[in-house]
Amino acid sequence: MRKIVALLIIAVLLIGSVFTAQATALPNVWEWIEYVQQNWEYEADYQGELCQEPWVSQERLRGDCDDFAVMVAYYLQESWKYDTYITILHCTNKPDHWVAFLHVSETTCKRMSEGCKAYYPYQTFKGWTYIPIDWELCPTWKWSTCSSSGMYEWNDLVGKPR
Asked: pLDDT per residue over 13-24, tens digit each?
C-alpha cells in the first residue's frame, strides 16, 4: 500500500512539474510579439489562397497581412488570454490591410507612442483601448488616412478567401 501511495505522489509531482515547465516556458507576450515582427516574411497570396491556420503561420513565419493578423490574434487570445479583434483597414495611401488589435491599458498605449517616437495609432471600443499589432513594430501607415470595417475573431477568417 505504501508503494502505491509513494508512486501516486511521484506521479502527481512529475505531472505538476510538467505543467509548471510548460507555463514557465511561455515567453513574455511582448517578447513574442517582437520576435514574430522581426522574423515575419511577407509572402503574397496566390490567387484564391485561403487564410492560413495560425499554427501554420507561426511555424512558417511567412504570409500576408491576414495570415499575420490571424496568427497574432489567436496566440494572444489562446496563450495569454488577451482580448483581441481583427479588422480591415481601408487607407488612402495603401491597399486594404488586415490588422489584429490588442486590448491594452492607456499607459501601455502611451508607452508604445513614446517608444515609436511618434503617434501610435489606437482605437477605442466600449471605453477600452486597442492598439494594432502589425508586422512593423512602429506602423508607418498614417492612422488618420484609414477607416476600418468589421470586427472579426481569428476563427472567422481561417480557411476563407480574402
From this structure: 444 433 333 334
Contact 148, 123 (CB under 8 A): yes
pLDDT of residue 91: 77
pTM exceeding the 0.85 threshold for the entire prediction: no
Query: Of 135, 134, 159, whose CA–CA distance to 53 is shortest?
Result: 159
121 lies in some domain: yes
> Which amino acid is present at 148?
S
pLDDT (0 to 100) of residue 61: 95
Query: Beta partners for 147?
Result: 90
Into how many domains does the chain fold? 1
pLDDT tens profile 23-71: 345 678 888 998 999 999 999 876 567 888 999 999 999 999 999 999 9
Tell me the residue range of the domain where 79 lies. 28-157
CA distance 69 to 29: 15
- Here the cell at position 98 is 488586415
Strands 128-133 and 97-104, by their bridges, are antiparallel
CATH number at residue 104: 3.10.620.30
Nearest residue to 71 (alpha-carbon basis) of 42, 100, 44, 49:
100
Please, which pLDDT band fits residue 113 given cuts at 50, 70 and 90? confident
